[in-house]
Design brief:
Shape: globular
Largest sheet: 7 strands, antiparallel
Number of helices: 3
Radius of gyration: 14 Å
Strand order of the largest sheet: 1-7-6-5-4-3-2
Structural class: alpha+beta
Distance between the termini: 38 Å
Order of helices and strands: EHHEEEEEEH
Helix content: 25-40%
Length: 135
Amino acid sequence: MASVKKELIIEASADQIWAIIRDFVTGPVRMAPGFVVGSKLDDQDVRVVEFADGSTMRERLITLDEDERRFVYSIIGGSGTPAHNNASMQVFPHGDAHTRFVWRHDVLPAELADAFSPGMDEGLRVFKQTQEAAV
């Protein structure tokens, strides 16, 4: 198994960022508009996320922890289906009106970590840019 971990500081409040991350249905589009072009509920705890490059991911909600501001999900289908995937996003206050955002994917086979990393980087770039422009 391989892990990919990304962190960034966003000039926005933790409450503002958590409101986006915790939104299971439209959160992906709100997080990275243009990079993510659609997100819809497919089942009670499964969403389908559509990306600008035409790929899709079916993601199952595992945990939504309001106290820890932690969201956990698993990719279960779509354009690529790992043998195992566990992903988490967590929001931490960071000083005055800033947020530390941590996103991690644990994935099998390990070779998929190299494929996940650039997409995570681009999603985070758009996320930071979008949120900081809104402040």
